[in-house]
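Exercise 7. Given the components listed, write out the predicted structure of the assembled complex. Treat all entries as one system.
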Amino acid sequence: MQLGQLKYKILFILLAVVPVIPASSSPLKSAESELTSTPFTCSVPSSQTNIYTPEFNLNADSVVIPLKRAGRLFLIDAKVGEETGNLVFDSGANGLVLNSTYFRNHVKSGGSTPTGVTGAVGTVEQIFVKQIEFAELSYKNIMADVTDLGHIENRRGVKILGLIGFSMMRRLEIVIDAKNNQLKLFRIDKDGNRINSKSQEFKPDYTQKIVGNTNILFLKGIISGKTLNFCFDTGCETNVICSDCNRSIMNTLTITGRSKLSGTGSAGSEVLFGRMNDFTIGNKQIPNMDTVITNLNALSEGYGTKIDGMLGYNFLEQGIISINFVKREFGIRFINAEKR
Amino acid sequence: MKIITRYTLLIVGLFYTLTSLAQYDPDKVCRIDNGELIFSLNLKWTDKEKAAVSKQFDLDSALIAQVYQGKSVITIGGETWNAKKVKPDLVELSKPVQSETGKSVKLDDLFLEIDEWANFAGNAAETSVVYGVNDFKLSYVFVYNQKTARFYLPASTTAHKIYIAGSFNGWSTTQTPMERVNDGWMVYVNLKPGKYSYKFIVDGEWITDPNNKLRERDGEGDYNSIVYCCNHRFELKGNKDAHNVVVTGNFFNWNPKGIAMNKTSDGWALPVYLRDGTYAYKFLVDNQWITDPANKEVRNDADGHTNSFVEIGKPYLFKLDGFTTADKVILAGSFNNWSRNELVMKKTEKGWQLPYVIPAGNYEYKFIVDGEWMTDPANPFSTGSGNTENSFIALKANHIFKLEKFPDAETVIVTGSFNNWNRQSYRMARQGGKWILPIYLQPGKYTYKFIVDGNWIIDPSNKLFEQNETDTNNSVLWIDPF
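Answer.
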C-alpha cells in the first residue's frame, strides 16, 4: 500500500472516527495534540498494488455478506489470524490495514517505514497474516500494513481489526447494496462475467469505465457543468467536496452549517457543512446530498491525483453499486427517490 | 371586554411570532458566492433567532451584535468581516471562503463537529432501561425461561442459512446460527433478564422479527426488533368481570394509563422486565386504585398513599460495625443522590446494617453517624482523598483490575475511560501481594492506566494497548456482551 495514502485514509476517509477524549486534568489530554496534522505532507512513494485471491470455503459462486453499521461505517465480521472482530469495509484503503492493538506482535514482513505523520498514525509496519476469514471467503498468507486504529474503536465503540478495501475483492464482481446493508461478491471468469450463468446479471442505470490500476476507484461527476474527480470511498462517513473548487461549483452548494474549531491545535479553523444541489453522474442528477466542504489539496497529493471530492456514505445510499475490475466497469442502479 | 382584549393580543402575538419565524430559514442564511462566504441576516430577527443563527453557523455573538449596531467592517477572532445593508431589513455579512485554509486542524475537533452535524447520537444503553413488556403477534415465537431465551422464526424454510444477531452477541453476523426445525428456524440463547435488540439474517439479508411488534429505530434509518427477557410477573387473581386492569408504579412514573394486563384463566397477569431495584406499584381495576392483595409488603408514601412494594434482585447488605452508642446512622451515596435522611440503618448487636437493592453498577457512599460523615472503615476501596474521599463499591462486578508487583507502593489508582480519567479514582487495595479493584463495566471498550504513587503506567499484564495523544500508550480492555 502506498503509505502516503494510508496516512490520509486514516486521517480523512474515516471522517468522524477519531476519538473524543473527555476533558479532564489527566496528562493524557495533552494540549499540544500530535494529531494536529495540516498542512498535510506526503513523504513516501507508492509501492506496488496488492491483489489477493480468495478461496471460497463453500463451492458457491457467490456470497452475500451482511454488513453491520457503526455510525455510517460498514463493518464485516471477520477472523484475522486468531482474532475475531470487525473489518471496516473501506474502499479508500488500497490494501489491507490492521490495527496494531491486536497485531503488533505478528511477524514483520521486513522493515518499517515512518509515514512522516506524527501522532495518530505513527509508524506503519507490514506483517504477514496466516489467514483471514469472513463470510464464506478465506485468504492465506496475506501481507498487511499495521497501524493504530484505536481512535475508530473509541469513536464507534466496536472492535476494529482493520480496514479492508477492494484489493481483497478485485477478482470478484462486487455489488454494494448499502440501503440493505449487504455486500455481494460473485466469482467471475477471465472476461469478468459471472461464473454461474444462473445468477442474474446486474443491470445498472449507468456505467463508467474504471481508469487507472490502483485499488482506489475514481469517478467522474458533474456539478454546474464542470467535471470533477471524486474518490469513491465506502469508508467515508460523509461526502466531501473541495473548498477550492471552481467558484461556479461552490455557488451551487447550500450551506447548512459552519463550525469554527476551538481546540488548542486548531483554533479558528473553519469547517462548512452543506448539500450538493447540482450533482450529476451520467445523466442522473442527485439533489440534496449532504457534504462537508473543506480543503482536499493534501489528500490529492496523497493519492497522486487531483481529487475534487469524496463520494462516501451519502452517495452509497443512492443506489446499488457494482464494481468489476476485470471488466473495468463501475455501475449503479439508482433507488427511486419515492421508494427511499 | 377583557377577554376580547386578551384574545386580540394573543392573535396579534401569534401573528407576530409566525411572521417572524417565517423569515428565518436556516437553508437561506448562508451561501457561497464568487468565493465569498455570505450570511444574510434579517434585522427583524428576535434574540432567539439571532441566537439560533449564531449557534448553527458558529458566529460570535459579539459579531452579530456589531452587525445589528450597524458596523460595516468588523474584525473579530482574527477575521475581518464586511457587513453591507442590501435591503432595509437585510444585512449581508461576508468574508472570503478560504480565509482559514492555512490554519491547522486538530482532527479530534473536526470529527467531533462532523459527528454532531451528522447527528451520530448513540442509543441509550439497554442496561439503563427500567422496565419493559413484550408485544409479540404470536406468543410462541419467543419464550424466556430460566435464563434461556428461545427465538423462533416461522417459515423461511427455503433459506439456506439464518443467523440471529443482536446486542447480546455484539451484533455478530456469524456467531449465532439458527437451526432448521419444522416449519421454521429456532435458536436458544443464554440471556440474563433485560432488554435486547436483534435482527435475523436470512441468507445475508437483515430482517426484523416479523412477529414482534416492538421495534426501535437503529439510528441509521432502519429498525431493530426489541425483546425483553422478563424477570417478574404481576398477577391479580379474580376480578374476572373487570373490563380493564392495568398496573402502574414508580417504574412507570405513576402514569394512571398504566400498562395493560392480560386476562388469564383465574384473573389478570403481566410478565415484565424490571431492572434490579425496589418498586412501588398499584393496580387500576376499571379505574379503581387497589394495592396488590397477594403482596403483604405495603408502605405509605410521603403523601399518605398506601402502595405495594416489590424488590427485584438480591439486596446488598451495607454494614457498619461498632458505633453501638450512636442514636442514628444513615447510609447515603451516589445510588440515592446522597440523601441525608432516606436510608436509615437498623441497629444490631454488633453495629448497624441495611439490606438495599440497587442495580449492577459502581457506587460511592458514606455513613452519617449522628450527623458525622464517614467512609466505611471495612471497605478498602475508595475514590477521592481527604474530605472528598468516599467509599467505593461495585455491585455485580464483572471485572477485576489487578496489578502485581509494586509491593512497596503507597497508593495505586486505576483510571480510564470508564471514569473520565479521574486522577483520584479508583483507589485499589492491596490483597495477597497484588493490587486489585473489582469493578462493574458495561459491555464495550475501555482504555485505562494505573497510577502508582503518581507515576502513570500501562497494565504490564495486558498485551492490548494503543497510542494516546502523548505517545505513552493506554491499556485496552474489552468487556464482552454477557
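Discussion: The helical segments of chain A are 3-13, 100-103, 150-156, 247-250, 297-303, 313-316. Chain A has two domains: 3-16+39-187, 206-334.
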